[in-house]
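Hey, quick one: can you model this chain's 3D structure?
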Amino acid sequence: MLVWQENFLTGESVKNPNKIKKKLNNGKLVPGIYLLTLSENPSNLMDIIPAAMLIQKSFYGICPKIIGMAKGKDEALEMVRSLIDEMYTETGTFATAEYIENR
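Sure thing. Here's the predicted structure for all 103 residues.
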């Protein structure tokens, strides 16, 4: 089962995010959707993953906590940029996991 942030972020272009979440949890293909996750690499703040990667059973089982979804790579990049800007403006740090949890 995928791990989702309780109030995960959604891009403006994402229509019916709960339906998409349900499809992804059931292993269905959802083209054009990108997921924002907390990075497991300490050198990175977040990762952007094409939802199509979840079809691979090996990746599905190790997918990091999902904090957002976007339609298209450009929207995903803009969401990450906006979130990092907001986080740094409010906290002066890049403690992504803590910021997301307390958001």
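One thing worth noting: The chain has four helices and four strands.
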